[in-house]
Structures
1.
Amino acid sequence: MKIVLVPLVLGGLTLLGGCGESREAPDSAEAVQQRAVEAQTARRRTGAELQDRAENRVIRTVYLCDNGERLTVDFDNPRSMATVRNSHGEAADLFQERAADGIWYRAGATELRGKGILATWTADGRADTQCRAID
């Protein structure tokens, strides 16, 4: 009986081996490139999506100033505020003001104004200093 089963088992395995997936020809370079372009296009954000993302989250920017100070600024867009921390560990919460162009945040005599990567930092009792965003 063992002699009869072994040929049947081997024969069954041979038949099952033919039931596997059929091999397809590899994709052409053009097909691979087209899929890559489609994937990139699907991930690309529209201008409205980028603006919505910036308006609804906190954005951190680091500035280096002419007087040697390093400012870390958390722009809290949903609350219309900015928290400025200097290299001495001092922090100030500033409130957004309407600017004709660029940014303007202030609280009392402390303010941060700027456009693009340039800003002017004014702190109580200190001279104004020019700063440049590095992050």
Note: Confidence is low (pLDDT under 50) at residues 4-15.
2.
Amino acid sequence: MIWFRKKDTAGLDAPRAAGGRVARDRDVSNNEVFGRWTEGIARGMGTPWFLLLLSVFCLAWLIWNTVAPDGWRFDSAALGFTALTLILSLQASYAAPMILLAQNRQDDRDRVQIEQDRQRAERNLADTEFLAREVVALRLAIKDLPDRDFVRAELRALLAELAAEDDADDRDADATGDAGRADAR
């Protein structure tokens, strides 16, 4: 019997993960959940409350293993509080990678935000340049338009012309009226 290797059913557009296997949505969602979980822990470790509680825990540990009766002690001061040292080393060995992971994820988010800000700035610059060109075009168009003083002067000239025509019409009417009266005599 011939055994065939199962082919990846994903197309060429699916990204390959480390090791050459095709990344699945499930992997991405699991990584996202794990990343959020580690960010939550790293965020918690960066608070004053965590430092206060860790200090109280260590102080209680040291006092208990120093003052308590010998039968009740579980970590010897003579051996340098070995169990406490191991616990704190274990906590530090997990905290450092979690903090780095959270920092890397924040760097990725910052990189995406910077790219979006750059694109937004490019759009704003293009919009500003377009508006500046439009303002210049409007200024040039306004220069060709008559201003208020020009319009007033033109209106005054028209009024004067109309008044002159009106006076001429009145004189003509008076002249024709005088001529008609002279013919009637």
Note: The chain has two domains: 21-144, 146-185.
3.
Amino acid sequence: MDAETDATASLLTAAGWKQRLVFWSGAILVGLFISALTLLSEQAVVHLRAFFDRTPAGIWLISPLGLVLTVWLTERWFPGAERSGVPQVKAALAIHRDLTLRQRFVSFPIAVGKVALTNLGLLTGASAGLGGPAIQIGASIITTLGRAARFPLHYLERGFILAGSAAGFAALFSAPLAGIIFAIEELGREMEEKISSLVLTAIIFAGMTAYVILNHYIFLEAAEVTQPQGRAWLSIGYCGIAGGLAGGLFAFLLVRLGQRLSRAGRRTRWALIVLFGLLLAALATLSGGRTLGTGYPMLKQIVNASQAASLWFPLEKALATLITALSGVPAGLFVPSLSVGAGLGADLHHWLPLAPLQTMVLLSMCAYFSGMLQNPMTAFVLVMEITDTHELLLPLMATSFVATGTARLLNPRSLYEILTENYVRNLPQQA
């Protein structure tokens, strides 16, 4: 029986419809989880900022103690939920046939822990994004339900992980195209026809669920921008090189410092986590609270041109994000990095205004993101989708590739590729 005949036959069987209903339910559940992650994070940031405004000195107690508590809870009850989540998903894709071993990285408890602990980290003053957690949550939920429903191994090996990851990404950012591109560019360099249909279906169901609950399609309303004209085209190289170097330097430091930290003894490591908490408190105090949380409020203000950012904001936010990532708390990099890139664009415009402010802000967002992850297609599609600025497609595309090329001067290999090796290296040898 060929593939087409097999697919037609499955439409007429109870088992086939059972599998579809389970998969659709899983995609809807991903949308619910991502909505909960988003709504809780908004409240966490609001409450922490209110506390900081009332009692600024309190952050010096909350950050170190809260960081230690979050890391301890993660390691004690939710191992595998630490840090971003993207390297864990990539490590899960490297595991073949041993579905029990794969549960170290994608499981329902990890999805629950990721929601709770990412928000706990935000309450401690961490610079925590939601992108990585959303990807791991999506992969965990759909893979768990697929395994419970006894889907064919072909789907469980790669299809459900890719579908869940793309669904989580797309539901968070309201960016279905970027979700598909990310699944191809970062997680699966090539996708079969069956897997592609799974990804599309998961994105539709998860995205619509998140849309109904969160009531927004455009993740980030941008001020009006125009296509660069004449001399303004020079901003592509300017923003691309500067953003690529900045993003590449962030990735370089995260990898090198992370490697040193992994060799530290247990007592030294816990002492460093306390120090990281104190550093986060210092950055929050020096910046007036600008480094707290995901960075989305500042990102929104910069992109909307509703408030001028401090020239120090990109450095402050990048340092807070680096410290958070090194601490090991569940936290993503995407939204904080977009805010760093936006602030960098405002700074670049202040120093050399080659193009309108908002054009340089969006180009630098794309450049920093590309430089950090070396995923140029994901970067320009994501920025274009979340800001609804399709007229900047060509400049964003060119900037992302300039930035990626620049970043590779510092890091010949991508950030997530290196971080994934740390997980794969410790796996038992598979037959």
Note: Residues 3-214 form a domain with the Clc chloride channel fold (CATH 1.10.3080.10).
